[in-house]
Amino acid sequence: MLTIDNVYRASNALKGVVRKTDVLYAPKLCPGVDLYLKTENLQITGSFKVRGAYYKMTRLSAEEKKRGVIACSAGNHAQGVALAAQKNGIKAVICLPDGAPISKVEATKSYGAEVCLVEGVYDDAYQRALQLRDEKGYTFLHPFNDEDVIAGQGTIALEIAEQLPDLDAVLVPIGGGGLISGIAYTIKTLNPNVKVIGVQAKGAPSMKNAIEHGEVEELPSVSTIADGIAVKKPGELTYEICSKYVDEIVTVTDDEISAAILALMEQHKLVTEGAGAVSVAAAMFNKVDLKGKKAVCVLSGGNIDVTILSRVIKRGLLMSGRSCQLMIELMDKPGQLKNVSRIIADLGGNVTSVHHERANEGSDVNGCYLRIVLETKNYEHITQIRQALTDFGFKLL
Question: 76 with 49: CB under 8 angstroms?
Answer without folding.
Answer: yes
